[in-house]
Amino acid sequence: MKLYFSPLACSMATRIALYEAGADAAFVRVDLATKRADDGADFGAVTPLGLVPALRTDDGELLTENAAILQYVADRSPQARMAPDDAAGRARLQQWLSFIGTELHKTVFSPLLDASAPDAARDYALKKSGPRLDVLERHIERHEHLVDEFGVADAYLVTVLNWTAVTPIDLTKWSATHAYAARVRTRPSVARAFAEESALYARARENARPATP
Amino acid sequence: MKLYFSPLACSMATRIALYEAGADAAFVRVDLATKRADDGADFGAVTPLGLVPALRTDDGELLTENAAILQYVADRSPQARMAPDDAAGRARLQQWLSFIGTELHKTVFSPLLDASAPDAARDYALKKSGPRLDVLERHIERHEHLVDEFGVADAYLVTVLNWTAVTPIDLTKWSATHAYAARVRTRPSVARAFAEESALYARARENARPATP
Question: Which of A187, B70, B82, B200 could serve as a FRET partner for A206 with CA atoms 20 to 30 Å apart?
Answer without folding.
Answer: A187
